[in-house]
Design brief:
alpha/beta, Rossmann fold, eight-stranded mixed sheet, globular, Ribosomal RNA large subunit methyltransferase F, methyltransferase, cytoplasm, 23S rRNA (adenine(1618)-N(6))-methyltransferase activity, transferase
Amino acid sequence: MSRKAPLRGAKGGGPAAPLGLHPRNRHQGSYDFDALLRVEPGLARHLVTTPRGERSIDFARPESVRALNAALLHQQYGVRRWELPDGYLCPPVPGRADYVHCLADLLAADLGGAPPQGSAVRVLDIGVGANLVYPLIGHAEYGWHFVGSDIDNSALEIARRTLGHNPGFAAAIELRHQSQRNSMFKGVLAEGERFAASLCNPPFHASAAEAAEGSRRKWRNLGRVSEVRGKRPALNFGGQSNELWCSGGEAGFLRRMIEESAQIPECIGWFTSLVAKAEHLAALRARLERSAVREVREIPMAQGAKRSRLLAWSFLDAGQRAALCGAPRGDA
């Protein structure tokens, strides 16, 4: 098994540069609220003034986070009428964009360094959710085509409503119901179907109680301690039970994903997932070693103080992976 250096933030030769958003990420610096208000005037009622006299939103309020996401997706990516009901996971758009750009770099490494563009690049989003954020950003930035799967039919119906308002995206994004709750790929992939990559943001927690405690920590970090005493805290980024926790938590989910990926080694060029907890990496590396993968990559990511990483593995060689991006086999 080959374990190449990370594509970003690699150590060696001297001090590593501070890790921030990907250079191609559109969300560098502060939010441009004037531009956001021009496309989504309703965001105005969610604005607050910080102690430093700057405009922002209250990130502890789920409705404000949703309004900001709708404005960002409209202003930056041309997504109209993005809506998300109460309770569904509302991920931060800048962090999701970083994953897409890091995935583009991963694919580019097999293609001479240029990120692949266009519909020949097919990506599978495991657990696409009602928010549909990865396919929306991936198609807007690179023209990729997506299949998004989810076990929650209601989430898929919400995502379909967004696609109904955005026909250009609808032509590039297919949604599929995963009827096998304990499977990631089985029951979703058609016979002979191939993808350049898969992506996933797995449930972090191992139980509902653990997810609730994670929410309390978020509120404490947001300075809202008094509001969580004696009652269940609101989830500022929302989330249904299947989005927040599963048996074995993040580590268990990814162990199952690795095991299942070994059963379909030629179907996906790069299997990838976010890994929120660094302490899970050693066990996941050991499991990948036993699965006879050809290559493993660990790509560090950061948004503000939050640190994460993208774990990627492949059973194919560079030429085979390049072919899944539409390149002739001899061009890799």
